[in-house]
């Protein structure tokens, strides 16, 4: 029996007991206990389900009961976490036990050890306090982790001549040298984006002309679609 089913049965039994108390079969103490238990069960059932915190090797945990610190040593796909205490003592805990027994210690905020700023002549000046300069840059013993970047969206630009790669070419749109494109690319990314935004749809007359020229009893609808693609390429190519 799962926890939700057990709560349902307990709630049903308590509600029956409360009905008996209304008929003076139970004392006031029983009445109050039933009301408190029913309220607690309803609150537990309506509380949002919290996802377990994803731990990583090296995270620091603090035991709620003893205030002792320990370190996450390893995690597994089974949901258990191996924790290293002092004196090389280890223990493994489930995600539920981690939530009940430990606090997760926040990662310490790394402070810069020095600052640098660019002087008027272009040379960098090293100082120990943050300077009042727009060129000021903090220096760390260990650089902070770089923010996670979203993957570049470019698949929709392949039809307009752009794809990333390891080649160099001259863009047919702006006539500039471009590095880091596919060997079949014909446009740089900005020109491909511009071409996609300026795409001209076929007119009804063009569609009718393609249909009349292509569709015959021996042709399939595929030829009609290919003809449309060819007309679009011709119309949208500068």
Radius of gyration: 34 Å
Order of helices and strands: HHEEEEHEEEEEEHHH
| Helical amount | 25-40%
Structural class: alpha+beta
Give me the oligomer status.
single chain
Distance between the termini: 69 Å
Number of continuous helical runs: 6
Strand order in the largest sheet: 4-3-2-1-5
Unreliable runs: none
Task: Report the average pLDDT across residues.
Answer: 76
Largest sheet: 5 strands, antiparallel
Strand content is: 15-25%
Number of strands: 10
User: What is the overall shape?
Assistant: flat
Structure description:
The protein is of the alpha+beta class and 238 residues long. Among the domains are: 3-46; 60-104; 155-197, no CATH class; 204-236, no CATH class. 34% of the residues lie in helices and 19% in strands. It is built from six helices and ten strands, in the order ααββββαββββββααα. It has helices at residues 3-22, 28-46, 95-101, 189-197, 204-214, 221-236; strands at residues 60-63, 69-75, 81-84, 90-93, 102-104, 114-118, 124-127, 137-139, 164-170, 177-181. The relative contact order is 0.06.
Which key terms come to mind for this protein?
five-stranded antiparallel sheet; alpha+beta
Topology:
Blueprint: H1 3-22, H2 28-46, E1 60-63, E2 69-75, E3 81-84, E4 90-93, H3 95-101, E5 102-104, E6 114-118, E7 124-127, E8 137-139, E9 164-170, E10 177-181, H4 189-197, H5 204-214, H6 221-236
Antiparallel strand pairs: 1-2, 1-5, 2-3, 3-4, 6-7, 6-8, 9-10
Helix pairs in contact: 1-2, 5-6
């Amino acid at each position: 029996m799962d926890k939700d089913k057990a709560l349902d049965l307990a709630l049903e039994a308590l509600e029956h007991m409360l009905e008996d108390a209304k008929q003076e079969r139970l004392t006031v103490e029983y009445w109050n206990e039933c009301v408190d238990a029913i309220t607690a069960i309803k609150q537990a059932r309506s509380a949002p389900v919290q996802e377990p915190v994803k731990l990583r090797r090296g995270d620091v945990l603090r035991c709620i009961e003893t205030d002792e610190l320990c370190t996450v040593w390893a995690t597994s796909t089974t949901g258990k976490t191996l924790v290293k205490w002092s004196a090389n003592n280890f223990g493994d805990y489930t995600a539920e036990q981690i939530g009940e027994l430990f606090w997760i210690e926040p990662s310490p905020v790394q402070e810069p050890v020095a600052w640098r700023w660019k002087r008027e002549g272009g040379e960098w000046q090293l100082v120990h306090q943050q300077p009042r300069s727009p060129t000021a840059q903090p220096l760390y013993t260990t650089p902070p982790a770089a923010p996670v970047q979203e993957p570049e969206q470019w698949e929709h630009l392949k039809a307009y001549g752009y794809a990333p790669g390891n080649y160099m070419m001259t863009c047919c749109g702006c006539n500039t040298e471009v590095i880091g494109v596919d060997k079949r690319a014909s446009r740089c990314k900005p020109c491909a984006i511009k071409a996609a935004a300026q795409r001209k749809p076929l007119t009804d007359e063009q569609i009718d002309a393609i249909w009349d020229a292509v569709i015959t009893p021996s042709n399939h609808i595929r030829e009609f679609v290919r003809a449309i693609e060819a007309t679009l390429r011709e119309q949208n190519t500068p």
